[in-house]
Amino acid sequence: MTSSHVFFIPAMLVVGAIAGYVVGRRMLLQELEEARRAEARRQAREAALADDPPPAAG
């Protein structure tokens, strides 16, 4: 093993860790936004049903 490996391998590990953090954080933020939108859609749907109840059967 040459002396360049002593610097190259840890540097690549650090770059990989940083890239993984950035990509993971973006995915987390995107998933949280999708969950927020789904909750807003659910609340809007429930509000619409409360304003306009279905006709009684019979």
What key attributes describe this structure?
single chain; 58 residues; mainly alpha; 1 helix; 84% helix; rod-shaped
Give an account of the 3D structure.
- The longest helix has 49 residues, at 3-51.
- The protein is rod-shaped.
- It has a domain at 15-50.
- With 58 residues, the chain is mainly alpha-helical.
- The mean pLDDT is 90.
- The chain is built from one helix and no strands.
Number of helices: 1
Strand-residue fraction? under 5%
Give the terminus-to-terminus CA distance: 85 Å
Q: Largest beta sheet, briefly? A: none
Stretches where pLDDT is under 50 for at least 5 consecutive residues are none
Radius of gyration: 25 Å
Number of extended strands? 0
Order of helices and strands: H
Residues in helix, %: over 70%
**Mean of pLDDT:** 90
Q: What structural class do the secondary elements suggest?
A: mainly alpha
